[in-house]
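Slide 14.
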Amino acid sequence: MPKSREYFHLTGKFYICSAPRQVTRYSPPVLPHVVSQNNADDQAAQRQVSNQFWESKRLEQWRKLPAKARASYTWPQAGSTPKGPPSSFQCLAMEDMTATSTSNAGNRDSVMSQDSNPMSSPSSPSSVSSFRSRWNLTGSNNSNINNAGGDVSTPTSPISSTNGASKIRNDNPAKILHDIAFDNFCLLVFKPLDIVHFESSPLPPKRTIYTTDAAGQWAVSEANP
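Slide 15: predicted structure.
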């Protein structure tokens, strides 16, 4: 901070909070307020509570994204070569369509248990085109999708009404494309373990060190500048 002549040096761990159907090497962080037990069942319950919390946060951040930012999650992987065709980038705005999916939004474990093969669902930008064949969207008679990852237009309304309540159609190609984009969206969570706060304005300078233990409790100590 140039005006206050101080800086913070943070050391910690990064965690990736991905979609429940995604298979990754690393799990979301366990919440510090969830008491850890030696019993395997208690540890599984602890992990489930944490997973539900982080999945709800992933959904919350997805809903806050601008429509243009959501659309970018249907594009090919950033930095990959060769560059994809223009049709891969024709989806330029995407509205949130998770309103009818909140029943499983906060439960990573229940979603995983319902999908015997998580990798069977398209979950990466490169597989956007694959759901054409999965939903019989190939051929000249198909007007639902203009291109893989492009604009979506359906001949029927994507909203159906049952007993006066509106619900997004799960067989709507726009909803399928939305779910692919949502699966590609991850939270990157940083968990600080040590913080060094250095203040150079006073003489002598001041250095404060904050450290945390396994229980998440912080300790503060003064150090030589």
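Speaker note: The mean pLDDT is 73.
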